[in-house]
Design brief:
CATH class: Alpha Beta
Helix content: 40-55%
Shape: globular
CATH architecture: Alpha-Beta Barrel
Number of domains: 1
Structural class: alpha/beta
Number of strands: 10
Radius of gyration: 17 Å
Order of helices and strands: EHEHEHHEHEHEHEHEEEHH
Oligomer: single chain
Largest sheet: 8 strands, parallel
Distance between the termini: 14 Å
CATH superfamily: Metal-dependent hydrolases
Length: 254
């Protein structure tokens, strides 16, 4: 069986040259890309891109930073939930969702963030979909909240928080997706080292910048090689394992 690479977390709607980004990804052996929505307006855009490109799969949800970008987000939430519910057959996950107490400094926004997060988790439970999670600076609350919901699988994207919660996530069998930051971030290296190979995934989180370079799905190949060297696992074996992991958590993209 020919192995394939998958980018499980990318904001593909934010690139200006989507055609080129996808072509470069395919040239690097990255054949599937999960596009995660963030804002109220990106839900439809992500679905539209997934319709247009065979390589792209939609994941819909509200990013925790949306509370500081959009003061009407709570009023819009029910219609967004209806939209996601109505498009359930066209999506593979709920995300990007979560909590953020790092980039969102205004504590008055935290209760709204939590209400949105709870509704998104309830939706994932209802639709029996995995989640793509953001936990920055709010790891304790996120990890305290998750056991209240029955969700098929959980991916923690770009984890860089306290080791205590990393260990808890490992104990609970969560997946962790590794970004290109593995090339310079001790926190990301630690995640890649500590999480067993059966629970690792790959992501670009593009178009986030890494040391000045714009993140793109094609970088997933380099992440794989970095993990392979770090964990001293043959890269072919690791690629096979990570594809298997991705099939387990995101079955709808296969």
């Amino acid at each position: 069986m020919v192995q394939i690479l998958i980018d499980v977390h990318c904001h593909i709607n934010l690139y200006l040259t989507i055609d080129q980004v996808i072509k470069n990804a395919c040239d690097a052996g990255v054949e599937k890309i999960i596009a995660v929505a963030m804002s109220s307006i990106s839900q439809e855009r992500v679905l539209e891109i997934a319709r247009r490109y065979n390589e792209v799969y939609a994941s819909l949800g509200i990013h925790p930073e949306e509370v500081k970008m959009n003061e009407k987000i709570e009023q819009q939430l029910d219609s967004i939930i209806d939209f996601i519910r109505n498009n359930n057959q066209k999506i593979c996950a709920i995300g990007e969702i979560g909590l953020d107490h790092h980039f969102v400094k205004n504590k008055e926004l935290y209760p709204i963030q939590k209400r949105i997060f709870d509704k998104m988790l309830l939706l994932a439970q209802e639709l029996n979909l995995p989640v793509n999670l953001h936990t920055k600076g709010a790891e304790k609350t996120v990890f305290d909240t998750l056991p209240s919901y029955n969700i098929p699988n959980i991916n923690i994207h770009w984890y860089s928080g306290p080791e205590k919660f990393l260990n808890l996530g490992i104990d609970r069998g969560y997946f962790f997706s590794i970004t290109p930051a593995i090339s310079y971030s001790p926190a990301v290296k630690k995640v890649a080292l500590k999480v067993d190979k059966e629970h690792l995934l790959l992501e670009s989180d593009g178009p986030v910048k890494y040391s000045g370079s714009v993140g793109v799905p094609a970088m997933v190949k380099n992440i794989l090689n970095s993990i392979s060297m770090l964990k001293e696992i043959n890269s072919d074996e690791l690629e096979r394992q990570i594809e298997e992991n991705t099939r387990r958590i995101f079955p709808k993209i296969f």
